[in-house]
Design goal:
One of its GO terms (molecular function) is phosphoprotein phosphatase activity. Pfam families: HATPase_c, HisKA. It is found in: Membrane. Residues 189-242 form the HAMP domain. This protein is α+β, with helices and mostly antiparallel strands. It folds into three domains: 5-175, Beta-Lactamase; 213-309, Signal transduction histidine kinase, dimerisation/phosphotransfer (DHp) domain (Helix Hairpins, Orthogonal Bundle); 312-466, 2-Layer Sandwich (Heat Shock Protein 90), CATH 3.30.565. 59% of the residues lie in helices and 16% in strands. It contains eleven helices and eleven strands. The strands form three sheets. Strands 6-8-9-11-10 form a five-stranded mixed sheet. It is rod-shaped.
Amino acid sequence: MRRTISWQLIFSFLLFSSVIIGLFGWFSMRLLDSHFSEYVSERRTEEITGFTDEIEAVYAQEGSWDEDAVAVIGRQALQADIILKVYDSQGELIWTPTAMEEQENRQMMSSHMSQMSEMMGGTESEYTVTTVELNDGSKTIGSLTLGTMGTYFYTEHDVAFMSDIRNNLLIVALLAFALSLFFAVWIARKLSVPVFAVSRFTGEIAKGNYTEQAPKETNIVEIDALIRSVDSLSRQLDSQQEIRNRLSSDIAHEIRTPLTTLKGNLEAMLDGIWEPSNERLKICYDEVNRISRLIGNIDKINEMESNHEKLEFSRFDLQALSKKVATNFTAAAAKKNIILAVAGEPVMITADQDKISQVLTNLLANAIKFTPKQGSIHIEIHQEGNQAVLKVSDDGIGIDPEDQEKIFERFYMTEPSRNSKSGGQGLGLAIVKSIIRKHNGTVRVVSDIGKGATFTVSIPLEQERA
């Protein structure tokens, strides 16, 4: 059966409370019954001893049996629900209650025991007869038989006392249960309200409403952590949705532009407006290449992010590879009078050399593209623990802080119009991120507007081979 968290908390709390209250009440009553029964037994024994001592004192006072004095003690015993019969040393009966007195007393004791059994929950005691020897010093002067309803015979006051105790315990148990119910409801509400709020919040996220306000934080550490995590997830999903929308728009734009150019040129040649010269065919060919390059880059990222493409590991010097790649950009840097320098120390790593070369190529291409004339680009390689660290720094235009987390997404361009003019497609850094992630590494950027940017790549010195 499915239950809400409130009902589950209330039920669990009340069940636990009921068990504790029940065990406490049960042990209390058991302990009380045990001690009170011992008290009643000792009191009964003292009563019997008292009557025995009084009868022996009667004989000791007179030196013989005074039947009248014995009768007084015997009738006092009847009032205490004890039937006495006194015999002399020869076994001759000295005193006994009349048959009517004994019968009435027996009936009263039986009736009282029935009432006691009802009130005390099944307490039972049988009529017993015991014989006690009467002595005067060391001399045996007779015997005494005592008929009682056992040593655990409760008086009406005893029964009333125990009944009051039980009733009071029951009242305390009910009050404790009511208090437990109050606290159970209070605690369940305290815990369930924020959980329900988070549930509604996640429901809105599931509907695609990422702008929903996150629930207010509580004073419960775990729930506050959950709220912050779900809120962070909502913001990330909102950002991803924005990127997907922009991605669709950018892909459409990137493909539409060359296709429009290609279609216009072909229509002009088919209609005879243009002659199909080598120059115009070359323009069409370049546009087809642009589309192919775009699709190829997308495929390259998909392959890197999937588990289908396996890396070809080899051991090489990262600094030497950086110098080799930098040499390929010497001419491009010279055109803008950019200083291109490689520094650091030799660092041997195990990685896919072609893929790491692609990372360096993309980072340097970006740096040269956005570094103004007479600027500088520095590549630094060093080792930190079990990581190889590659830094590519420039003094270019910099990257806005809002864009720094997004530039590694596909097709994301900080200035789309300018990137389009410079031939960019917003895929270079996405490829870098995919390659480095495949190598179990990280890539991050630190930049200030107008002060350049520093891209830092960290990858393990050794890779786990599949």
